[in-house]
């Protein structure tokens, strides 16, 4: 019986150690599962924050794009209105000063064109008045008239 007793004692100690290992394994597994769940929750939270940031950036980009389109279209509409006024012969209104972008350059060029056309039309009108006075004078003259320029040509 003495030979059996150490075996039983050894078996009991081994069973106790195995039970302790099993308990430690179960506790460690539970703790690791808890830590893993905390980590997964953190990743999901970060993902949700990232999605919200992407959505906000997309909305900001859309608003910026709409603002830019509105600015471009309004400037082009101004250019169309200026062209329509010039087409009708209305040179009285000033062309709004443009910015440094392409639509601003277009408006500035149209303003310069309007100024030049106005000056040219005024010059042509003055020449037409002078020619009309000369024509009326020549038509009313009862004797022969010789017309020369400043160089006597």
- The overall strand count is 0
Shape: rod-shaped
How many helices? The count is 2
Q: What's the overall average pLDDT, rounded? A: 87
Describe the structure.
The protein is mainly α and 153 residues long. 80% of the residues lie in helices and 0% in strands. The protein contains 2 helices and no strands. The chain has helices at residues 4-87, 102-140. Helix 1 runs parallel beside helix 2. The longest helix is centred in the N-terminal third of the chain and has 84 residues, at 4-87. It is rod-shaped and about 170 Å long. The termini are far apart. The mean pLDDT is 87.
Provide a concise account of the structure shown.
With 153 residues, the chain is mainly α. It has helices spanning 4-87, 102-140.
Topology (SSEs and partners):
Elements: H1 4-87, H2 102-140
Helix pairs in contact: 1-2
Key structural traits:
153 residues, 80% helix, mainly alpha, 0% strand, 2 helices, rod-shaped, single chain
